[in-house]
Amino acid sequence: MVKNARSPLKRGLWIAFLIVLIGAVVVTVMNRQQIKDHFSAVAFEPSARVSEVLTSLRLSESGERVFLATHPTIDGSQHFNEQCAEVDHSEQGHVLGCFTHDRIHLFDVSDDRVTGIVEVTAAHELLHATFARLGEGDRAALSAKLRQEYDELAEENPELKERMSVYEHLSDTAFANELHSVLGTEVRELPGWLERHYEQWFKDRGAIVDGFASYHAVFVDLQQQAEDIRAEMTTLRADVEQRKIDYGAAVDQFNADAAEFSARNERFEFSDSPDEFERVRADLEWRRGELEVTLEQLQADIDRYNALRDQLTALSEVSSELDQQLNSDLAPVTTRPTE
Fold this sequence. Notes:
Layout: H1 2-30, H2 32-43, H3 48-57, H4 61-69, E1 73-75, H5 79-83, E2 97-100, E3 103-107, H6 117-132, H7 136-156, H8 158-164, H9 172-186, H10 192-198, H11 205-266, H12 274-326
Parallel strand pairs: 1-3
Antiparallel strand pairs: 2-3
Helix pairs in contact: 2-4, 3-6, 6-9, 6-11, 7-8, 7-9, 11-12
């Protein structure tokens, strides 16, 4: 009787064990990427520079796990180009980061004028990593929602439309992948559902957008200054050239009138009209003074034009210098990081 009583108990325990085992298998399968990321992140020892960027990003626990699982590198040498050699370079500007073969690689830019550019690029590439970790169904659903949101935002945000125009040649999914990273790091006002989505990875997405706005403003300001200077130079040059023509004609007329006055005087035409002589002479002296003032004003505007040209040259040099700082093709061969 005791043996028969234990049999149902054993069967119950085996059933319970199987249920727990099946549940564990299901949980493991459903979370296999998170588990993989966990062990990959734990096994990774970030460099001091990577740790510095990680701290600045203020990621959530999930965001930090994914970021470290990609074993990110930050490199200011030509080795970066080797790491990102397979990246599509069709977009405008320089490649500052890439997510390839489940690795994040960042180009190290140390210029203080564009502080934050490495961190924003890191956030951008992190979002590529999170997008890649979605299941096919979730990725397709998110892609559709992102595209719909983009179509609405682009109507009132021409800068965003221009920004994304370089990706229009991509497939719908690839476009959504880029859009996912751009919206998350560059656009401040987003709908609630998308903000909640990004909260999975960032504790303070606004700080990322602030970083983008800060360094982006440097380039926008340089471009705006250059455009303003070019516009002023165009207007000033047209005005000066017309005034030079008018001045030349006025000088010719003055010289002709002065020569005629001298000739009349030599013929003693003013002998009986001393008042007329004084009137004509005074008029010529006044006109001479006006011509001198006109010439001074012309020279001042010519000097102004030349100064503007010097300013434009200086701005061009600054833009070129910044461009070189962002151009990994000009990076030194050395300083390869330890991976």
